[in-house]
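I'll show one example:
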Amino acid sequence: MAVKEYLTPDLVVRFDSRRCIHAAECVHGLPTVFDAERRPWIVADAAPADAVVDVIERCPSGALTYQRTDGGHAEVPTDDPRIVEVENGPLYVTGSIRVEAPDGTPVDTGQRAALCRCGASRNKPFCDNSHRAAGFASR
């Protein structure tokens, strides 16, 4: 599936299902906008743009991104890139990141990613939650 776009007068919300690991930060953060049981599941104009942006910036996988069309602030990468181990799960990476293939070819650039560390993902280098079925234990 290609990246889907949801347009409002103030904002373009993009969703890349290949990156989503169902952390549910969006659904819990703003259920009026993000509802996995509804179609379309994103109604980007159901809340003010600033509220939508705040929730998107909590998406650990980078599956949700945005572009402001109202002159509002763009996502600003953290000064220091950060890697957080999720117990029995992926590595959450934040900051101005560049993911490269072994030959140096860029795979992705962005502000957030969930990277596989169990080796079972079918979407490497990104996590696809295969660690659950594989019984991956981080310690």
